[in-house]
Amino acid sequence: MHQSYRKALVLAGAFLNAFPLSLLSFFGNLLPYIDSYCYAYRDQIVINIDPLWTASVFLGSFILGMIFSTPAERCFGMHLSILLANIGAIFSVSSGYFAIKEPLALALAFGGLQGVFVGIVYAMLIKLLLNTMPDHGGTATGLMSAGPVLGALINVGVAYAVINPNNKKPDVEMNNKVFFSDKGLTDRVPYYFLVVGVMTATFTLIGISLIYIGSWKTRQNDDEETLTESVGIDSSKTVTASNKPETSSLIVSGARVYGNKDHQQVCKTKECDSVSSPANDGTVRENRKTYSLQSNGTKKINAVADKSPREIIKTARFWLIWLAYVSSNHTNYLHLNLYKRYGERVIQDDSLLVTCGIISNAGMVIVRPLVGVASDKIGIRGINVYLNAASCLFMSLMIIVLHTCPWIYLILVVVEYMGTSPHTMLFSLLTAYEFGQTNCGSNMGLIRSGNIALVLLEPFFVDFLIQTIGWDWLFLTGSLASAVATAAIMALDYFP
């Protein structure tokens, strides 16, 4: 099979595997139905917690899953780890049928377990695509990241079709929240989880099969890979790298090395220590230097040194990215989970808000790949700055227009999705660009570590602000958080 066909199979498999990674993209639409179920059966619930905790626990456990993705790969290998994590995700989604009776059980099973397995799958899919398509890593990741959006689009439609096919309106208000009182609607909520469990099994098992087929020849030859790059008019050098999980591989493209496109350092010497020579027996050192080889008629070659989690926490760039991620995640959390709750205070038609969510996700199927292409063309830092700044602006406008012109609010919800939905993809690519891809899963988990405390506090923070100063001020904090993220990413240019 031709190499391009194998890459296409791997990309298609990653796309299908990414379908169940989308809980945060559709949970905002599902949350009012879960709220209403818990309200209807509140007398039978032993420990009554806000169902919003499900999203928070998912985020926290997702981070843990990413951190443990590298150890899992070393123990079981990449493909077996993805398969086992997919099976775990199928179980956690289907268990919602029973767990819905207790909000705490739902948070732990549908949120916590699913988050761990999805975190492992996501980190490994990113690394798989960066290794498979080093010259077009941003584009490949963007295409893969359209999978969760398409999965969310399907989930939004399935939730509406299964739970509220008759377009019932929320008709009960209590404690600044609105609920559906229709018994038929609330009784259909558990069946949604069974339907989604079957969907998850179908997509992920087909996806891992395509990845396995596309990677078959690569797995046979991954003990030793020879990469040849012309560095002069009449000369060439060959670099041999071990492709095992413990070691780094040098990935060279004709125009550049996939790595830190925005922040390249140049060695003064003509030949870098990492290039093969008799002294180093043709191997690449694990902690390689960034370098550039230039002469008349030659190409410029740049490579970024892979850094471990222990190394990156000592750098200012890590803490700036950490701050940017934590800040922008607050904006992301509010928009994806609460746009429907917020809008229902003025817009009573459930079908309008559901349609808004479907259009948002349909648009992101197109936008996410374009964001990936743009990151290859103009740099991942620039894309992060533009989208976070836009998110800041549009969330502020959402607050204004909801009370003055509600139909514009629906439009702005769709537009705001464009800034918040690629959130995880953007920071995953930024982490790989800045610190290398060998440990990108664990490094990304470390970047997200600040969110563990944040997401566990979010339900308390959200409820406190709603009860004290109201919904508008809550969403204003989301706008301000995007402004902080924008400033932090811009500051990366001033630190080595």
UniProtKB/TrEMBL annotation:
Q: Which SUPFAM superfamilies match?
A: MFS general substrate transporter
Leader sequence residues: none
* Chain segments annotated as transmembrane: 9-31, 51-68, 80-100, 106-130, 142-163, 191-213, 351-371, 445-467, 473-495
Task: One GO cellular component term, please give it.
Answer: membrane
Q: Which GO terms describe its molecular function?
A: transmembrane transporter activity
The top of its lineage is:
Eukaryota, Metazoa, Spiralia, Lophotrochozoa, Mollusca
Main localization (coarse): membrane
> What keywords appear on the UniProt entry?
Membrane, Transmembrane, Transmembrane helix, Transport
User: Membrane topology for this entry?
Assistant: Multi-pass membrane protein
What protein is this chain from? Major facilitator superfamily MFS-1 domain containing protein
Q: Which InterPro entries match?
A: MFS, MFS_Riboflavin_Transporter, MFS_trans_sf
**Entry's localization field:** Membrane
Gene3D superfamilies documented for this protein: MFS general substrate transporter like domains (1.20.1250.20)
